[in-house]
Amino acid sequence: MLIPVSLAVVLFISACSENESQIYIGEGDNWEVNYGRDENFSIKYIGEESMPEDEINYIIEQGSRTTDGNALLNESGVLSI
């Protein structure tokens, strides 16, 4: 089952030096997406309805690179990529 994920993206940047992390956060009505400088992504369900039990389909586009897949959320409603 394809579950639409719609985000009104708001980006926050924390720190700017090489030794410190940068974190980008996007949040919508039902989802929060975090992207770290080490290229780790997490997608978290934050909606008020019951958490989806079906697989989440995702596509991440970064420049010319694309990562896609589908997976289940963990018990906390998080998908780590």
Offer a concise description of the structure.
The chain has 81 residues and is mostly beta strands.
Tell me about this structure:
Residues 6-15 have low confidence and may be disordered. A hairpin with a 4-residue loop joins strand 2 and strand 3. The strands form 2 sheets. Strands 1-2-3-6 form a 4-stranded antiparallel beta sheet, with no helix packed on it. It has a two-stranded antiparallel ribbon with strand order 4-5. 0% of the residues lie in helices and 41% in strands. It has strands at 23-27, 31-36, 41-45, 56-62, 65-71, 78-80. The chain has one domain (23-80). The protein is mainly beta. It has no helices and 6 strands.
Task: Assign an overall shape.
Answer: globular
Largest sheet: 4 strands, antiparallel
- Lateral arrangement of strands in the main beta sheet: 1-2-3-6
| Rg for CA atoms | 13 Å
Determine the structural class based on helices, strands and strand pairing: mainly beta
How widely separated are the two ends? 19 Å
Helix share, percent: under 10%
Which spans have pLDDT < 50 for at least 5 consecutive residues?
A: 6-15
Query: Per DSSP, what share of the residues sits in E-state strands of 2 or more residues?
Result: 35-45%
**Number of strand segments:** 6
Total count of helical runs of at least 4 residues: 0
SSE pattern, N- to C-terminal:
EEEEEE
Q: In the residues, how many domains can be counted? A: 1
- Mean pLDDT figure: 77
